[in-house]
Amino acid sequence: MTETQILENKLDVYAIRQQFPILSRDVKDKPLVYFDNAATSQKPRVVIDALSNYYQQYNANIHRGIHTLAEEATMAFEATRDSVQAFINASEREEIIFTRGTTEGINLVAYTWGRQNIGEGDEIIVSVMEHHSNIVPWQILCKEKKAVLKVIPVNEEGDLIVEEYQKLLSDRTKLVSIAHVSNALGTVNPVRRIIELAHDAGALVVVDGAQSAVHLDIDVQQMDCDFFAFSAHKLYGPTGTGVLYGKKRLLESMPVFLGGGEMIKEVSFEKTTYADLPYKFEAGTPNIADTIAFKAALEFTSSIGKQRIRDHEMELLSYATSRLTEIPGLKIIGQAKEKISVISFIIDKLHHQDIGILLDNQGVALRTGHHCTQPLMQRFGISGTTRASFAIYNTKDEIDIMISGVKKAIKMLS
Amino acid sequence: MNEQRTIAEIEAEIIDEFSLFDSWDDKYEYIIDLGKKLPPLDDKYKIDENRVRGCQSTVYLVAESSNGRIYYEADSDAVIVKGLISMLIRVLSGQPAEAIIDAKLDFVREIGMMTHLAQTRSNGLLAMIRQIKNYALAHKIKNETTV
Fold first, then answer.
1. Are residues A28 and B77, on separate chains, in Cβ contact within 8 Å?
2. Is residue B59 within 8 Å of B76, Cβ to Cβ?
3. pLDDT tens figures, B47-94
4. Which residue, of A266, A284, A302, is where some domain finishes?
5. What residues make up the domain containing A268?
6. What is the widest separation between alpha-carbon atoms in chain B?
7. What is the CATH classification number for the domain harbouring A311?
8. Distance from CA of A351 to the nearest CA of B (A)
9. Structural domain tally of chain A?
10. CA pair distance A13, B79, nearest whole angstrom
11. In this structure, what are the phi and psi dihedrals at residue A258, rounded to the nearest 5 degrees?
12. Each residue's pLDDT tens digit, A179-220
């Protein structure tokens, strides 16, 4: 590769930053350093414009109207479905169900497929690193059906112990529901292997893609997951919209989730017949505006390319890791073999909340607490961590600001 | 001394003290200092019954009454929260139940610390104020019913 090619391939992060209006604001009289991307990413102007354009130009309810506005809105809404299909390489557009987000996607599977297929004594496997959203729906289901919830442990580095997982699988295992990437540790789980083993045992697999969709190439056919749930807002898109992918034959066999408009074919008081996929699972007026704007986010991400995004973020992760390691008394929680750009840490004798408040005072937005993963925190014997998570628009200069902020906080608190 | 001074007077005093600080850093340095100086609660009081649950930091709060006034002691595992607690105790501890129930605690906003009282579930401070007021209310009701 010539030098010019390398330069062309290298991301112009400052040009990208220009596309995110919020990044030019100040917090506590200091330029904002936004490192809470695993909670939600910021939105590029194209997404904000798509959202506002919808309301200004063609706001209408979709699918039923025959007027121009309704047709334009329907076309734009359905165009997002096509974009999502391409983004995760689903084989059919009917396999893309719009939800409010990952949590709703997981609940949809639990309340429909789960209620239909899980019985007394059946087993569901999750891991100790799951977000509460991928624990609670299964707990509710297990309680209702007298089924058993089993948990895959993680090792000290934050990697899943695959051998232990293999031991948990049995002929009673009906479902494995697993995070693709841990929100608290950044661990990338070996989902391909997990799915293979589950399928061998005759179990289905739900992959919680909330943290992975923005960083990793998602190919649901190659992964061979049965369900894949993710949210738009962690992917440079708007809040309140997300996707549940499901294999068509499963979605077809599943009972409906919510009843109402959109999801019906015919209704009489004696009998209602349901609409075909994907509308069967999309009762009521959906989140039209945000779903339409989500397409702009997918295009934004694809235009840069996941590989370039990942290269940039990995550079930030490795820089942050080495700089944080310089700080005496600081311990990184989660040093898995394969990680995305999330770094969780604790500091001797200091409370993460104090660190978070003092860093906010320096304009640095971090996340502190248990990250909705209390079982994982218990596993590491801690009450919480401070977490920095990086996105495409973050820079090494910002990491330097965070490092001096952390040093300053330690000085103030000690 | 608190017995003689009203909540409003002590609040004014705190606002006055904070007006001397030029920067957020100075404010936080001061609050951290208050947190460090707050006498720790005896371990025997650190029981579930006295625990005010927040999402991130934990606060323990105990109250007792004497001559119609209520006295509070509290502790937290996070030092900034502890500093804020220290100020709340300075303002409210030793005040009459009625005054505690009615206290608006405007000083928190005046000194720029309102974000810590926002409904973020992130700290036990808001829950602690609720608990402080509940003690005062319980005391008042108990007194009214026994009279």
1. no
2. yes
3. 999 988 765 788 899 999 988 899 999 999 899 989 989 999 999 999
4. A302
5. 49-302
6. 51
7. 3.90.1150.10
8. 5
9. 2
10. 37
11. -110, 145
12. 999 999 999 999 999 999 999 999 999 999 999 999 999 999
Report if residue A41 sits inside a domain. Answer: no
Distance from CA of A352 to the nearest CA of B (A): 8
Asked if residue A135 and residue A24 are part of one domain, the reply reads: no
At A330, which amino acid appears?
Answer: L
At position A146, the amino acid (one-letter code) is K
Set of chain A residues whose Cβ sits within 8 Å of the Cβ of B32: 354, 412-413
Fold of B7-146: Sufe protein. Chain: A (3.90.1010)
Can you tell me which residue has the tokens 């995760």? Answer: A88
Q: Is B79 on the interface with A (CB under 8 A)?
A: yes
CB B84 within 8 A of CB B78: no
- Whether the CA torsion A25, A28, A30, A34 is positive or negative: it is negative
Taking CB atoms and an 8 Å cutoff, what residues of chain B touch A358?
28, 80
Q: Is B122 on the interface with A (CB under 8 A)?
A: yes
Residue A265: CATH number of its domain: 3.40.640.10
CA of B112: how far to CAs of A28, A209, A299, A322, B84, in Å?
11, 39, 41, 35, 12
Taking CB atoms and an 8 Å cutoff, what residues of chain A touch B28?
Answer: 357-358, 361, 412
Q: Do A353 and B29 touch (CB under 8 A)?
A: no
Tell me whether residue A40 is in a domain.
no
Domain boundary among A282, A302, A322: A302
**pLDDT digit string, tens, across residues A275-290:** 899 999 999 999 999 9
Q: Does B126 touch chain A (CB under 8 A)?
A: no
Q: Catalytic site residues of A?
A: 372
Per the CB < 8 Å rule, is B80 touching A369? no
Regarding whether A374 and A287 lie in a shared domain, the answer is no
- Do A353 and B24 count as a contact with CB atoms less than 8 A apart? no
In chain B, residues with a C-beta closer than 8 Å to the C-beta of A355 are none
